[in-house]
Amino acid sequence: MDGLLQLSVSDLTCERDGRCLFENLAFTLCSGDVLQVSGPNGVGKTTLLRIVAGLSLDFHGQVDWCGSPVDEDKPGFHSHLLYMGHQPGVKATMSPEENLRWAMGLHYSITVQEIYQALEKVGLRGYEDVPCYRLSAGQNRRVALARLHLKNKQKLWILDEPFTAIDLQGTAELEQLMVDHAKDGGLVMMTTHHEMNLDYSGFRKLALEPSV
Amino acid sequence: MASPKWFYEFSGKCLPWVGGLALIGVLTGIIWGLLFTPPDYLQGNSYRIIFLHVPSASLALTVYVSLAISAGIGFIWKIKLADLAAKCLAPIGASFCALALVTGAIWGKPTWGTWWVWDARLTSMLILLFLYLGLIALREAITSQDTAARACAVLSMVGLVNIPIIKFSVDWWNTLHQGATIKVTKGASMAPEMLIPLLISIFAFYLFCLFVFLIRLRTEIVSREQRTSWVRGMLGVRS
Amino acid sequence: MSQSVSLLQGAKTIFTRDIRLAVRNRGDMVNPLIFFVLVASLFPLGVGPDPKLLTIMGGGVIWVSALLANLLAMDSLFRSDYEDGSLELLLLSPQPLWVMVMAKVVVHWLITGLPLTLLSPVLAVMFDVPGEAIPAVFLTLLMGTPLLSLIGAIGAGLTVGLRKGGILLSLLILPLYIPVLILGTGCIGAAISELPWVPFLMWQGALLMLGITFAPLAIAASLRVSISG
């Protein structure tokens, strides 16, 4: 029912306070692709992700979702988008279950079973009703990552440094999860400094060069 | 047409004319008003401050409205020049607003016997000054120029909606607490020998405001476009 | 596949979330209230306990204290959401931003404006406001405080990205609070002088309608600007 989804970015130029981050950037991402944006610190990886997600307004150029500009149907685009930024978006005084409930509740009606299953998959079983301030940084990150385990309309994942504070086993699981998602017709766009060893044909890299 | 380069060149040609006319106008208006108009039958010579006060007060309001409109244009259509114009207008408007307040206070001393009276006009002007200061403070507080421009645009548009509400509520508050206020300006009943220099003065102040605005805007354009080839070329030729 | 969410359900999600957060951080709820009473109590200490003077000042003092207490609470409206990244999630959800913003403002009013209003008759008695005027005190605050929350949220949205937003917020917002203050104190003043005071409430209601119509758009715009920077 979803058909082939496509994210295409063309002529993207971002200038921040007189400093040009990137110029005339263009790429296309289709169902089944995993794209790693790489480059040294300060090159504009996060900015690029935020522009594509629709958070940053400082850019010229076009971002198209399935052939039409994102600006024309923001709610439509956002219903397909799962974004995870530097901050996980986890409320410290709420439990993992409550956190998932509100974060996903804005997208679709979610059941308790689904939440419990997702939390179990990220290894938080038994922590469902513990306030998040009692959890470690890595566990808080996992609460946010549990969103990835919920199957729904959110086919485009934009993940900024998803491996931060995640242990080795969690990293391997997350890599596998991305591949599975892509194989299932999803799109992944992410940044990380961690060396990705994906044995997957749809894995690509976009290297941002520091501009002079 | 809205390209900064075109505007810079065009405004460069206008600048001496605007400046010259403003100078002639201000001198005419002020000298005529201070030396050659008859004294007021009620207030004597003290009313002569209107040749300074009325233009400043009128400009303070006009500048805010133009600021909000150009900020709005910059915000909606992403026109850089409009953002820059809004940025340049804020300190100018604040200065005229402060001038209107100071001249109003000086005028108040002989009229009401005190420097400050909570008169509706003065109070509205004071609130307008706070609105200006808020805008300037917000722009100073945000480091990214583009974000600052957008934030100020939102704030100035909110301010624009609020100005009439503030104005009416203050007028009405003033009638509620009937103080010892005398209505000082009775615009319609003003004698022509006073009205003409006043109109000249107002016109000249507008020109002066435009002159200062153009200078600020040109400076801002050069500073913002310093990396472009046309600014480099222009500076390279001169140095 | 999964069911998508209606406008109302989205607003309800945010509403219950914020109520829950408010209940867990009770301090955020109680502190502005204490501040409200404390500031109002400073005035008799400053100008003396003469009941006549206090009656004249009462309406103004209650309103100014309410203004300041509201302002104090305003800074926290979006700040924690901004800091832990959940504001980004709100912006990127398929729900229109103004709906979610409205839900947040309603909760904010329920935990600050409404308690202030409920407490106001007590302060009115402390300021020797005559009994007939106390309904006016209560009703004018009931009508005026939602407007304070709406206007304040615009400023909170604009300053949320700044490290020291608090003092700047008051600079931006207090001038915009002035019409609410004038109408509110006017209402109480009229009631004390036994003049008709209901028209003041109607004016406040008119302004509130205006606020409900335009403020959510301005708040949403201010949040987009702050997040983008």
TrEMBL record, chain A:
<dbReference type="InterPro" id="IPR005895">
    <property type="entry name" value="ABC_transptr_haem_export_CcmA"/>
</dbReference>
<dbReference type="Pfam" id="PF00005">
    <property type="entry name" value="ABC_tran"/>
</dbReference>
<keyword id="KW-0472">Membrane</keyword>
<keyword id="KW-0201">Cytochrome c-type biogenesis</keyword>
<protein>
    <submittedName>
        <fullName>Cytochrome c biogenesis heme-transporting ATPase CcmA</fullName>
    </submittedName>
</protein>
<dbReference type="InterPro" id="IPR027417">
    <property type="entry name" value="P-loop_NTPase"/>
</dbReference>
<feature type="domain" description="ABC transporter">
    <location>
        <begin position="7"/>
        <end position="212"/>
    </location>
</feature>
<keyword id="KW-0067">ATP-binding</keyword>
<dbReference type="InterPro" id="IPR003439">
    <property type="entry name" value="ABC_transporter-like_ATP-bd"/>
</dbReference>
<keyword id="KW-1278">Translocase</keyword>
<keyword id="KW-0547">Nucleotide-binding</keyword>
<keyword id="KW-0813">Transport</keyword>
<dbReference type="InterPro" id="IPR003593">
    <property type="entry name" value="AAA+_ATPase"/>
</dbReference>
Automatic annotation (TrEMBL), chain B:
<keyword id="KW-0997">Cell inner membrane</keyword>
<keyword id="KW-0813">Transport</keyword>
<keyword id="KW-1003">Cell membrane</keyword>
<feature type="transmembrane region" description="Helical">
    <location>
        <begin position="89"/>
        <end position="108"/>
    </location>
</feature>
<feature type="transmembrane region" description="Helical">
    <location>
        <begin position="120"/>
        <end position="138"/>
    </location>
</feature>
<protein>
    <recommendedName>
        <fullName>Heme exporter protein C</fullName>
    </recommendedName>
</protein>
<feature type="transmembrane region" description="Helical">
    <location>
        <begin position="14"/>
        <end position="36"/>
    </location>
</feature>
<comment type="similarity">
    <text>Belongs to the CcmC/CycZ/HelC family.</text>
</comment>
<feature type="domain" description="Cytochrome c assembly protein">
    <location>
        <begin position="22"/>
        <end position="177"/>
    </location>
</feature>
<feature type="transmembrane region" description="Helical">
    <location>
        <begin position="147"/>
        <end position="166"/>
    </location>
</feature>
<feature type="transmembrane region" description="Helical">
    <location>
        <begin position="194"/>
        <end position="217"/>
    </location>
</feature>
<dbReference type="InterPro" id="IPR003557">
    <property type="entry name" value="Cyt_c_biogenesis_CcmC"/>
</dbReference>
<dbReference type="InterPro" id="IPR002541">
    <property type="entry name" value="Cyt_c_assembly"/>
</dbReference>
<keyword id="KW-0472">Membrane</keyword>
<keyword id="KW-0812">Transmembrane</keyword>
TrEMBL record, chain C:
<feature type="transmembrane region" description="Helical">
    <location>
        <begin position="133"/>
        <end position="160"/>
    </location>
</feature>
<keyword id="KW-0812">Transmembrane</keyword>
<feature type="transmembrane region" description="Helical">
    <location>
        <begin position="105"/>
        <end position="127"/>
    </location>
</feature>
<comment type="similarity">
    <text>Belongs to the CcmB/CycW/HelB family.</text>
</comment>
<feature type="transmembrane region" description="Helical">
    <location>
        <begin position="167"/>
        <end position="192"/>
    </location>
</feature>
<keyword id="KW-1133">Transmembrane helix</keyword>
<dbReference type="InterPro" id="IPR003544">
    <property type="entry name" value="Cyt_c_biogenesis_CcmB"/>
</dbReference>
<keyword id="KW-0813">Transport</keyword>
<keyword id="KW-0201">Cytochrome c-type biogenesis</keyword>
<keyword id="KW-0997">Cell inner membrane</keyword>
<keyword id="KW-1003">Cell membrane</keyword>
<feature type="transmembrane region" description="Helical">
    <location>
        <begin position="198"/>
        <end position="223"/>
    </location>
</feature>
<dbReference type="Pfam" id="PF03379">
    <property type="entry name" value="CcmB"/>
</dbReference>
<keyword id="KW-0472">Membrane</keyword>
<feature type="transmembrane region" description="Helical">
    <location>
        <begin position="29"/>
        <end position="47"/>
    </location>
</feature>
